[in-house]
Amino acid sequence: xxxxxxxxxxxxxxxxxxxxxxxxxxxxxxxxxxxxxxxxxxxxxxxxxxxxxxxxxxxxxxxxxxxxxxxxxxxxxxxxxxxxxxxxxxxxxxxxxxxxxxxxxxxxxxxxxx
Amino acid sequence: xxxxxxxxxxxxxxxxxxxxxxxxxxxxxxxxxxxxxxxxxxxxxxxxxxxxxxxxxxxxxxxxxxxxxxxxxxxxxxxxxxxxxxxxxxxxxxxxxxxxxxxxxxxxxxx
Lengths: 114, 111
Fold this sequence. Notes:
The complex is a heterodimer of chains A (114) and B (111). The mean pLDDT of chain A is 94. Chain A is globular. The longest helix of chain A has 4 residues, at 98-101. Chain A is built from one helix and eleven strands. Chain A starts with a strand and ends with a strand. Chain A has one helix spanning 98-101; strands at 4-7, 10-13, 19-25, 31-38, 42-51, 54-57, 64-66, 76-78, 87-94, 104-105, 109-113. Chain A is mostly beta strands. Chain B has 111 residues and is mostly beta strands. Chain B is 0% helix and 57% strand. In chain B, the strands form two sheets. In chain B, strands 2, 4, 5, 9, 10 and 11 form a six-stranded mixed beta sheet that branches. Chain B has a five-stranded antiparallel beta sheet with strand order 1-3-8-7-6, with no helix packed on it. In chain B, β4 (33-38) and β5 form a beta hairpin. Chain B starts with a strand and ends with a strand. The model of chain B has no long low-confidence stretch (mean pLDDT 93). Classes of the chains: A mainly beta (114), B mainly beta (111). At the A-B interface, β4, β5, β9 and α1 of A face β4, β5 and β10 of B.
């Protein structure tokens, strides 16, 4: 099992550009999540999905969009990049109760918006 | 507004000592309280978790203490080792899947 994979590892964007952060998991998890991590702020939930075709907003959804067409993939879209979106982005997945089994995190994507 | 408040922000402990990290929450709908450990350049990984109907859970050198009436919980790392140096996050879940994280504590264990 590859677990949770994310691409790219690192990206520099100019203000106003758009991009898609890719996330895939091969563990047949129903639940998938996107978090951003900023220094001293912990991880903030951007969007989550409880299954293919179902997504919902987390704590900080503004400026982002997601889709979930398959169980395996959960891409995150930035439409108009802003310096405030400079962060490390983590994708995660879990079974139904992640309190028991925990979240499986990907390696992260470091994004710099200049 | 931070739903889960974590302290301290950073912590330095001597090898063999006890590391203690504290968290507090307000939302009584939280139904699970995990702790995650993160090494530099990696994603967080589940360390230990507790349900609100249990006051203490121990796994090896790691213990969670939970005080439901005070809405507080803490992580104790006994016999701290340099390999424990990492960032620790407390977290809380609603509905068994939506995880909200604290701000994190950077732990450094001096050899």
